Every structure is written in structure tokens, then in C-alpha cells.
RND transporter (Paraburkholderia caffeinilytica), 785 residues
Amino acid sequence: MLNHFVSRLERLFFGHRAVTLGVIGIFTAVMAVFALQLRMEAGFDKQMPTGHEYIRTFQQYRSDLFGANRLTMVVKARHGSIWTPQGLARVYQVTQAVTFLPNIDRQGVQSLWTPNTFVTEIAEDGFRAKPVIDGSITSAQLNPALVETIRQSAALGGYVGTLVSRDQTSAMITADLNDHDAAGHALDYVQFNHTLENLRQRYEDADYEVQIIGFAKQIGDVAEGASSVLGFCAIALLLTALAVYWYSHSVRFTILPIVCSLTSLVWQFGTLRLLGFGLDPLGVLVPFLVFAIGVSHGIQQINHIVRELSHGKSTLEAARHSFHGLLIPGTLALITALVSFITLLLIPIPMVRELAITASLGVGYKIITNLIMLPVAASCFHFTKAYADRALVKRERRSTWLRMLARVAEPKFAYAVVGVTAAIFVLAAWQSRDRVVGTLEPGAPELRADARFNRDAVSIANSYDIGLDWLTVVFESNGAACDNPRVGTFEDDFASTMQREPGVVSVQSYPAMLRTYNEGYNEGNPKMNVVPIDSANYGALSAEIGRVRGYMNKDCSMTAVHLFLTDHKATTLTRVLDDVKHYRATHPLDGLTLRLAAGNGGVLAATNEEVAQSELPMMLYVYAAILILVFFAYRDVRAMIACCTPLTVATFIGYWFMKELHIGLTVATLPVMVLAVGIGVDYAFYIYNRLQWHMANGQPIVKAVEHAMLEVGVATIFTAITLALGVATWSFSALKFQSDMGKLLAFMFVVNVVMAMTALPALAVVLERVFPRRKPVRAPGILSH
């Protein structure tokens, strides 16, 4: 039935080759117009898992707390102190420039020059609050005496270590960014990064350095570095072309698979533009990873056509035979890869879901460009039998050593290989058990340690008391927190406990401010540095705190404790969150709910937890799909075990590799592991397809394995090595995550082909001996060609 359907498709496409290629050409031209309009787009909100407990807290109190999407700029004197008229003038200029940047929340901008930076003095009648720098002062009025007064006010207000560095050489400006402006237009992070760099160039000179960090700067730098992807992909394309020419010794056979894969890339980019998507900087590698899948299938097509040419068939006959023989196994392999990427939709992170759609489109289009377009286009060329004979002789010469490798099918070697594979699987599973979900390095993990962003981040972290990463714990009270001293006392105990936890640098909280204000209203008596237990006094102090953003909301139903962390490593976030959850479970208080978690640490932790929770079900769905498709193709449980076991072993070896190279499982690395499964399925389908076909024609399992490996082994190994060499060039990228992806992909390509060429045939032999067949092998209709 299915075989008849494939024959009908063959007659349709090859009977109307001009129409088939013409329609493809017109569609490609149209999609190219839209593909050229595709732009790189990033967004802070796209990084957040929708519906997660932490994100719900963050979104609910976003306007009342410190923004997680924060921009931090530091003006640092290269020589001497920041306390000079010139130094403070430069801080003023940068503050003004930041205030009027697009999408800046102007009320949230803070520096020594903003009115929300005030010093509170104890007077006879209580507190007297005044700005550190009076609003009537301009930068032109600065003189040494005035600068000294400002310095004393900053020290008295407790801003040394927060807005002024401990060594007094720099001053900080912070601002919260909105992902959308008042009109609802999304912030263009790539353009915004250019604006920030222009600002840096304007105010940085031989006397002063301007340091910039924050999500907007980080993602902007990643986007800038991602532009180098095109260069590395061009190198990979060139290496692939040279390798394919060395393999085929034909310019036409070299260009054909590459053009077909590039065609699907154009369709993919054009469709993304039509769907209203951009290309996220963290997902920019995915289209080129899918391109690798296309090259893999293209080489199998070329291999099949050349083999048929050597058997005396014309180019048209060879192309039709290749189409008929590879359409179903190739489609099954691509559908498996497609299902693999679709499972990424399980992760409720908009950026990951866009990435899943991007990859799925590319893989889906491969069915047309690599399984239909390529053989139809190849049939339009003319290749002589002499060329095919020469190509076959070269292939036979290259495959001589494969006869030795094919000996894995001999029972004594097959049992040994299966035993070694089982031992490797156990070892890899054991060694990968402690792999980390999330980032393993401080700073921006996508950038190298010597990148300007990471150098700035380290400098700022070493010069200021507050960590650059923070976790906000929200306390919700049934009644108004301003009238209930029990709330402040409870939070004070919590803050005191968390201050002693590893990974916490400092704590800023609502009860800490209560204590400070209480001491101030009692003439600075240190004994009064406590949370007041009198409701009236407690309420009056809360009213004072309400003027400061970030610690409570207007109706006092929410108060906050901010835990500033040493870094945002996954281990640090997990440890601190576990401590908070333990406290929540062991210290209940009626009428008070402890909620996690806002701050950039909360957003990162939510992302890590979603990746961790989605990984196992996602992989189970992927393998379930593979098992179903393998059974559908071969109707044999032996095939399911032989094809899927090597994939499983390769996956765990990949996890072990990630652990050893300190590569965390993130939204950037997870698609690579999924892709590795898709590539491994390609190898498995093509090898087992020929194995089953030879067995159906009466060959014993040992001979069937040998013939299958001689027929497709060279093409399979060649494809894996070519792709591995191509992506290995990414190791030299300025982006660390691209470099890591290159290493991981190259490793996974090689591991998968090793598993496919050793473990798969060995397992097939062992299963045939352990579970002997009761009747001769009969290949299903989809495999008979």
C-alpha cells in the first residue's frame, strides 16, 4: 500500500520534472524576499517561563520591586578618586544620558545626582531627609569644598559600597528597563546595545572608564557576537563542499546537496518572517544545525545515486531508484528529528518555543528539498557509467577497512561489543548524574571570561558591597502589614537567617529599614535598632519606608526581602532557594505567605527549574516517537532495541562530556542534545534499512551486516566527520556558548556514528541469536526497492 503510494509520487515528480523544479524555484524566490527581511530580535520577557511560581510573583509585583531587567553603569576614575569636580560632573553627564535612554523607567533611575538618593539625619524632632546632592546644584557649580560636602553626605547616607565603590574610585548609576514602551512597541535590544556603546564612547576617555552591565547589554553583546556565526557557517560550508567534492569527485554532486539544504534554509527564514518571528541571538545556531541534517541526508542520496549508476543505470533511473529507496527511511528519520524539536514546546519559555518552531520548520522543509528536490534535480544531469565506475572503485578502496569493522557482526565480537557498550552506558550514566542544569560560571555564560561585559561585571562585583544578582522573597499578609508588628519581626528573623547562608552577600529588607528608622526616631540610640512592637509606631515608620521603592506596595499587603548573591551560578541559586523553601516549610505564620521569587535570580532559577523538569519527559517523548517509528518501519522489536539503545548510550555520553567541560544544560544546550538524537536516528535508519533489506533477500545476519556497512558505512562516517569538522571551527568563536556548542556538536556527531557503526550491528546480531526468528525475514513494503 505504502510502496504503491511512493511509486505514484515517483511518477508524479519525475514525470513532471520541469514543473516540480519550477514550483520549487518560484517558492524559493518568494520566500527569499521575506527571508531578507528577517531580523535578530531579543526580549527579556521571552526568557521567562510562563506560569512558573517565581514568574507569577515577579509579574504581580513588578512595578513595586527592583526590576530584574536592570541596567547598571559605573563611572570609574582611572587615576585617583571619583571625588573631584570633574569626576562628579562626569557622573552627572552619564546620569542624564541614562535617564533619557529609550524604554528607561525614569522614576527608577538612581545615582548620586537623582532626588531619590537622600541622606536621613537625626534631628531634635526626628528625621530630616535631604538629597545627597541638592536639586539646585549644577555640575558647573562644583568645587572642591562642595565635593567634600557631597562625599560626607554620601558616607552619612550609607551609599559607600552601594552607589559609590568601597575604594572611592567610582560611582554607580542604575536604571530599570521596560521591555515595551508606552505604545506597546518592543525594545530593539540590538539597536539599544549600539546606543549604549555610543554612550560609552562619548563619556569614556583617558581619565574615566564607563562600565556597563545588565541583561540589555549582555543580550546585545551576544547579538553582536552572533553575527560572527555567519562567518563560521561560511567556513563550515566551505569545508563541507571540499569534503563532498573529495568524496564524489563531481562539482555537480558537490553543489547539489548544499544548494538543496540552503534552499530549505531560505524557506525556513522566510516562513519565520511571515509568522512574525525574529531570530533570537541565543537560537541563531539552530537553523545551521538543521542545515547539518540536510547535508547528512543529501550525502546519502548522492551515495545511493552513484551506486545505482555503477550498476549500469542511467542518471534518471538512478535518481528515481534513489528517490524510491530513500523517501520512506529518510522521511521517518526527519519526522523523528521533527518530533524531537516539537517536544521543546513542552518547555514554557517563549524563546525556547520560538526555537522549537524554527527548528521544526527547517526539518519539515528538508523532506521536500533533500528527499524530493535533490533526486529530481540530479536526474536532470548526465553522468557517464565511467564516472560511476571510478567513483565506485574509490569508494571500494576507502571501504576496505570497513570489512574489518564489519567483523563486529561475528558472534564472538558482537557479544564483546555489546558488553563494552553496556559498561560504557553504566559508566556514562554514573558520571553524568551530577550534571548541572543552568549556568556554571559567573558573569554572562554566553560570553568568554575576557569579554568586556564580564570584565566589567567582575570589576563592579569586587568594588561594591551589593551583589549584582539578587533574589527577592515576597511576604504577603492577609491584613495590612503596616499594622502588624508580627510581620516585621518574622521577616527580620528570616533576613537574619538568610544573611548567614552561603552564597548570600548581603540582605536588604523591609524590617531592616524599620530598625534603622526606629533607631533614628529615638535619637540614634543603638538599643532601639529593633523592629518596634507598638502598632502605632510600627505603622508610622512603615509610612516613611513607603517612599522608598522596592520594599513594599501601596496597601502594605506586600513587603519584601532582597537577598543579594555572590553570583547567578545554578549551584548558588539552587542552594539559596532550597534554604528559603526549608525556612518556609519549618516556620509557618498564620496570615502570612512567603512567596518566591522576583529579581533576576528568580527569573534565572525559574528557567533552570523548567529546563530540569522538562528534560526527562521531553526525552521520553522523543524516544517514544523513535520507538514507534522504528516499529512502524520494521515491525520488529529487535529493530527497536538495536536502533534506540546506541542513541541512549550516546545521549548519556554527551551528558558526561558536558559535565567534564563544565557545560550546563540550558535553553541553548538542550536543543543540541535533541539534535544529536535526530542525527543518530538518521544513521540508525539508513544502516538498519539496508541490513533488513539484505536479510529479507536471504542473507544471514553476518553477511547482511557486512553488506549494509559497505554500502552506507562510508557515506555515514564521512557525513559525521565532515559535519564534526565544520562545527568544530565554532570553537574559535568569540561567543563562549557558540564555542561550547561547536565542541558538543562535534563530539556528539562522532559518538553517534561510532555507536551506529559498532553497537547497532552488534546488538542486531546478538538479538538474532538470543531471539531467533521462527520464519524468514520479510521486509515490509516500504523497504522493498
Confidence is low (pLDDT under 50) at residues 781-785. The domain at 2-37+227-442+606-783 is CATH 1.20.1640.10 (Multidrug efflux transporter AcrB transmembrane fold). The longest helix spans residues 599-634. The longest strand covers residues 469-477.
